[in-house]
Design brief:
heterodimer; A: alpha/beta; Rossmann fold; 5 helices; 5 strands; about 50% helix; about 20% strand; B: alpha+beta; Four Helix Bundle (Hemerythrin (Met), subunit A); Alpha-Beta Plaits; six-stranded mixed β-sheet; five-stranded mixed β-sheet; 21 helices; flat
């Protein structure tokens, strides 16, 4: 069973995403900011990270960069909203494997996660 | 339903975000700068937008998105933060809070029309002001893309070079869904991914153009690879929003011709969109400014207060059972054959007592909430009220992280509002008056809280005109609250105490701000209900300080309120088994004493009135209800005249002298302000 780290500062979004993933057989761990996400990543060694961009303490891009520096093979899917074009771009440049746009279609998210798990 | 559950989590979060935003706005207005604060507000809007979009709440998305755009231009320095924008932010905040309430209560959601007009007006007002370089694309739009007809000469050259070498070149054509969101980023993602597994010679549009915001719905990627471009094709196919991918060998036909026929002029006035306007990088400034407060959820969970109360009640039950065990233990200890078992049981009971006590303390702690939960709204309130009175006031909060029992918090909320209003309306002078007095134009109100021994002290201090004891005395005399002679004997301190007398109000007439509302007497009785205490210190010309002293925790119990001969008594629900209506003909006489049979069991029946008059068996069948309880482990029916209801009450000690009164466990002050005796049924008879 693949393990997914869901990093989002909005409890509502975390909750929803986790529910969706759990219902589809994934194990989920959560983080509510970038700093926590980095910490949890190395504690839990998840297969894929779903990373929100706008988060307190440390934003998703900085977290991504830190993860990437420690583990170049980390698989991060950025979760973004409309209007964050340049940030997602920066994230892709920094090594994010994929991104999904909020509000996401559950199937799309699952598909993105599935793809990363396969690789 | 899942949606309802999602919604309620979302709304709880919105509530927190709005509270934070409100504080940030007030902070922002004071400092009129603070990138970090803007960032924080932006993030709040952003989070609400995300949730609203997911739940299909279009109106919420519309408003937060528009606001996000405005904030974004401020963040990037394209636009200055003007008072208009701050006001607009307050309006948006109010709208969101109405919106949230409507969603909570299922009421009608506020229309977006008027608000959107205001937002658009603000947007339009400054649209011409910002300095924008040509070709700056907007985050939502993106520059229109020219069909990839002619190849960029630079790429053409590289292609020619590649074709001259032995390895074949392939052309990968990727068609994307033109409706997809963040299309240019999607293209960029494809370019990056393909670049990782193939030798990309170039693409149309180029990576740089895509990065600059060009949004094509078709990508041409020229590449070489060991596997004839197959893995590149697979990678492209796996990307979201990709509709079709085709892979063809590229022979460069027509390339030479097109190159030779072309003039080697660099396209004049080339638009290299230096687009960094929209989203200017990550929040590099977040956390730089420590003034803003962060909601740190930390290691906490939300618990419904009802659940806490239930737990507290259950602990109460435990305590009762513990008492019974201890009684059984002493019975066993009393006789030789069972003494050993009795001792064991007694030890167990002692342990149980410690555990249940710790449990109770733990739950009492869980009822604590930060003072901030009620103070959060005050900065905004002070801002609004002071501008309405035409006063300039700086408001400062200190010690807002202290924690208090929620019952105490509820009890001090209104009093604090009242005290603050008084300070704004009567305490602080108008700017002109202050100037004339040689005081700074801006008045200052400080609300600070700190621990002192077993109490929390909250002080509201202003640097206004202070209260004049002589005027207070005059006013009290005029209102007939005190005689002239008595007034003359009062010290200044005692004179100030007069403001707590019912019927006293120094305001000549009710003003809009202080309102008619309650007086300081109600404030005091509110506080006394939770064992709190209030006092006032004031110096004419320098200001007033109102000091509240509050207990850290409270002994709170749920109690059944009953009436007997017109007096209200409280019986802790932990000692109430059942309540029945009693008809006179149901009362039997057993061995000359009154008794009640309930489902086959016989309960001795005493009247509460009789018990308190030390004549429990007093025959007077006036009571209409019986409370079934226990006394010394024996069942007992207690006759009362009336039932008032259940209430959460704060237990007050009666003090040493009264503590030995039979049947009385303490006292409380009822919500209406009257005192009531708490009965201890175990010692009633």
């Amino acid at each position: 069973m693949a393990k997914i780290l869901v990093a989002d500062d909005a409890m509502f979004m975390r909750n929803r995403t986790s529910k969706l993933l759990t219902a589809n057989g994934y194990e989920v761990v959560e983080a509510s900011n970038g700093e926590e996400a980095v910490k949890r990543y190395f504690e839990e060694k998840p297969d894929v990270v779903l990373m929100d961009i706008t988060m307190p303490e440390m934003d998703g891009i900085e977290a991504l960069k830190q993860l990437k520096a420690e583990d170049p093979d980390v698989k991060v899917i950025m979760v973004t909203a409309m209007g964050q074009q340049s940030m997602v771009l920066e994230a892709i440049k920094a090594g994010a494997r994929d991104f999904v746009v909020k509000p996401f279609d559950p199937d799309q998210l699952l598909e993105a996660v599935r793809k990363q798990c396969q690789q | 339903m899942e949606y309802t559950e999602d919604l309620s989590i979302f709304l709880e979060e919105v509530d927190e975000l709005l509270t934070n935003t409100e504080q940030n706005l007030v902070e922002l207005e004071k400092s009129s700068s603070g990138e970090a604060i803007i960032q924080e507000i932006f993030r709040a809007m952003h989070t609400i937008k995300g949730g609203a979009a997911t739940l299909g709440l279009e109106d919420g998305v519309e408003v937060t998105h528009a606001m996000e755009n405005i904030l974004d231009t401020i963040r990037s320095g394209e636009r200055k933060l003007t008072p208009d924008i701050t006001d607009l932010l307050f309006l948006v905040l109010d709208w969101l809070s109405d919106w949230k309430t409507a969603l909570e209560t299922g009421g009608e959601r506020p229309p977006t029309g008027d608000l959107m007009i205001r937002i658009q007006a603000v947007q339009a007002a400054e649209a011409d002001a910002p300095v924008e370089s040509a070709g700056v694309s907007h985050p939502s739009g993106g520059a229109p893309f020219k069909k990839p007809s002619a190849l960029d000469p630079d790429l053409a050259h590289r292609l020619l070079e590649a074709l001259d070498q032995a390895m074949p070149v392939y052309k990968l054509v990727v068609k994307l869904n033109p409706e997809a969101e963040l299309l240019s980023v999607r293209c960029f993602q494809i370019l990056v991914l393909v670049d990782e597994i193939a030798d990309v010679i170039g693409s149309v549009p180029s990576k740089e153009d895509v990065e600059a915001g060009e949004t094509p719905d078709e990508l041409e990627i020229y590449l070489r690879s060991d596997d004839q471009g197959i893995s590149a094709k697979q990678v492209a196919e796996s990307v979201q929003d990709v509709v079709q991918v085709s892979l063809v060998p590229y022979d460069g036909s027509g390339l030479r011709e097109s190159l030779s026929s072309r003039q080697w002029d660099e396209q004049p006035g080339e638009v290299k969109a230096g687009d960094k306007g929209g989203d200017s990088g990550p929040d590099k400034d977040a956390g730089a400014d420590l003034v803003i407060r962060k909601t740190n959820l930390g290691r906490t969970v939300r618990v419904n207060v009802d659940l806490l109360d239930l737990l507290l009640n259950l602990v109460g039950e435990l305590v009762i059972d513990r008492t019974r065990i201890s009684q059984i233990a002493s019975r066993l200890q009393a006789s030789e054959p069972t003494a050993v078992t009795g001792n064991e049981l007694a030890a167990l009971s002692a342990r149980l007592q410690r555990t249940s006590q710790e449990l109770q303390e733990g739950i009492m702690k869980a009822r604590l909430l930060p003072l901030m939960s009620i103070l959060a709204k005050f900065p905004r309130m002070v801002r609004d009220l002071s501008s309405r009175c035409g006063k300039k006031i700086d408001f400062e909060l200190q010690g807002e992280r202290l924690e208090l029992d929620r019952t105490v918090l509820e009890a001090i909320d209104d009093p604090l509002i009242h005290i603050l209003r008084n300070a704004i309306d009567h305490g602080i002078e108008s700017p002109d008056e202050r100037k004339a007095l040689g005081k700074p134009e801006r008045g200052k109100i400080t609300l600070s809280a700190w621990h002192q021994e077993n109490q929390v002290v909250i002080q509201v201090r202003d640097d206004g005109r202070g209260m004049d004891p002589e005027r207070i005395k005059e006013s009290a005399v005029r209102k007939g609250l005190i005689t002239t002679e008595a007034a003359a004997k009062l010290s200044d301190r005692e004179a100030l105490e007069l403001i707590f007398t019912p019927g006293f109000s120094t305001a000549k007439q009710a003003t809009e701000v202080s309102g008619r509302g309650v007086g300081m007497d109600v404030v005091r009785s509110n506080l006394e209900r939770v064992n709190g205490h209030i006092e006032v210190r004031s110096q004419v010309g320098t200001g007033t300080a109102v000091v509240l002293r509050l207990p850290l925790t409270l002994a709170i119990v749920r109690a059944l309120l009953v009436e007997c001969s017109g007096i209200t008594y409280a019986i802790p629900t932990s000692s109430v088994d059942e309540v029945l209506a009693v008809h006179p003909d149901e009362i039997k006489t057993v061995k000359g004493k009154a008794a009640l049979t309930v489902r086959g069991s016989v309960f001795p029946l005493v009247s509460l009135e009789g018990c308190l008059k030390d004549d429990p068996w007093m025959r007077n069948g006036n009571f209409k209800y019986a409370v079934l309880t226990r006394t010394h482990d024996e069942p007992l029916a207690l006759g009362v005249d009336g039932l008032i209801g259940e209430e959460e009450i704060v237990v007050k000690e009666l003090g040493k002298i009264l503590s030995r009164l039979k049947g009385i466990g303490g006292a409380t002050i009822l919500p209406q302000g009257d005192p009531a005796v708490i009965l201890d049924t175990t010692s009633l008879i």
